[in-house]
Amino acid sequence: MSPTPPVRRLRLGLPRRMFSQVLMAQVAIAAGVAVLATGLFLAPLGDQLDDQAMRRALAIAQTTAAQPRLARDVQTTPATADGPVQREAERIRRATHAEYVVVMDRRGVRWSHTEPSQVGRHVSTDPSDALAGREVMEIDEGTLGRSARGKVPLRDGDGEIVGAVSVGIAYDSVRALLLHAIPELLAYAGGALAVGAVAAWLISRRVQRQTRDLAFSDIAGLLAEREAMLHGIREGVVALDRAGRVRLLNDEARRLLGIGDDAVGRAPDEALGTGRTADVLAGRVTGTDLLTVRGPRVLVANRMPTGDGGAVATLRDRTELEQLGRELDSTRGLIDALRAQDHEHANRMHTLLGLLELGMFDDAVEFVGEAVGDHRATAEQVTEKIQDPLLAALLVGKATVAAERGVALRLSGRTRLPDRLVDARGLVTVVGNLVDNAFDAVAGTPHARVEVELRAQGRTAVLTVRDTGPGIPAELRELVFTEGWSTKEPPAHRERGIGLAMVRRLAERQGGTATVREAAGGGAEFTVVLPEALTGPGAEPALTVPPAPRAAEEEA
């Protein structure tokens, strides 16, 4: 026995495709609006037609009652089917296409009627209001059926009420007008529905192209995934619209750029201030892996245009990598210096061994004393002028590197800096960058010399680094502080053009300045002013030691 095939059940429901859902929704809305508009139009139309019919009946009754001869004939002639009142009323009825024109006396007896047999009989509706002198408009039932009626009093020449005139217009004619208007109205509604359906189809096609025919559930899922991705990745993401305004920021971008939600809807220049970071985000600087400095952070930025005219920029924090690169440079320099010292130490040991073998013991003692005294003098000279241990250690290490590279590193005689720095690490970064930059500038030049001056002016620290290199042309003195700008080839492990930019940013962050000018005698002179860099009112004033001549300046 063959197995029974599974029964496929027809499942009814909304289609999954967005195109079909939007089209059905818009057609349903257009149909609903058409039906509602038709109903709202027809509802008052019947009332308007009834009112027009009653007013027309009243106007005919008023015109009939205004004839003086009719009131006189009611008073002087009998109510007969061929009397003057009947003839006049029928003439008016045929001329106005009314259903009936009834003239009655004060007792309610008819003097005219569409059916002659009804002449002389009482009217079928209450005539009291008209006989009391009031005009009446109504829809009522009578011997001729339902009609729109107008009743007015009939007065003689003296104004006395002698009867009433009742005029009726067939209600079927009113209904016929209403029914006659419905097909035309439905035709208009159908046309509007057709236009709405075509417009809905066009809109749905556009939505289909823009959404790539995804279902609403797919779009909702993509949106949820996008939100999770944007706020979960450890890269900053900044989306800009076609006008260049910030449209979206993820959490990492807010942290790296130091801005909040108030930046959304604003241009990068407004949200970040003028600078390289804003230029990169706005697309004024192009390229890949562009370096920029934002506050204390070194960022790598990439910008990709989008199809709608906007762009998406990604930001990576490279601060730690940059610091590691600089530490690697310093470590390599120290290794080279230690290698040189090791070579120098071996030479000294050989010299000492030779003196001992020759029995020149006094000369050996003097030689050892001079070798040890040189290093002790260098460290003591630095720590005497610079009391902060981090800065002193940095300059002692730089002195070793300078000796290896054949550069004379000097401390100015005006150097005096107490151990009251607010941000010693920041000043170490500034000094290290400027000294390294000066070493690069004087490399390969004869009589290479770098001079460092650190002094306090109240609570302000002033740093000056001079070198005997080729100097910096006047037109490039602002450009050297721009991120990514450098005249030297970058090393393999990191980019160039960051050190001086970071120096200026660190200075500006503390409300200070970083400038460069031509040094006396040639070369470049960098000056960094850091207000409020020292704590306490006891900071040493500037120039506590009088300037010493060049010959008296100590060599670090």
From TrEMBL:
Protein's cellular compartments: Cell membrane
Keywords, comma-separated and alphabetical: ATP-binding, Cell membrane, Kinase, Membrane, Nucleotide-binding, Phosphoprotein, Transferase, Transmembrane, Transmembrane helix, Two-component regulatory system
Domain Histidine kinase: 402-534
Class in the EC hierarchy, top level: transferase
InterPro entries xrefs: HATPase_C_sf, HATPase_dom, His_kinase_dom, PAS_fold, sCache_3, Sensor-like_sf, Sig_transdc_His_kin-like_C, Sig_transdc_His_kin_SpoOB
Topology in the lipid bilayer: Multi-pass membrane protein
Gene3D superfamilies: 1.10.287.130, Histidine kinase-like ATPase, C-terminal domain (3.30.565.10), PAS domain (3.30.450.20)
Catalyzed reactions per annotation: ATP + protein L-histidine = ADP + protein N-phospho-L-histidine
Transmembrane segments: 21-45, 185-203
Molecular function (Gene Ontology), one example: ATP binding
Domain of life: Bacteria
Main location: membrane
EC numbers: 2.7.13.3
Span list, region Disordered: 536-556
Name this protein carries in UniProt: histidine kinase
Organism, scientific name: Streptomyces cinereospinus
Highest classification ranks of the organism: Bacteria, Bacillati, Actinomycetota, Actinomycetes, Kitasatosporales
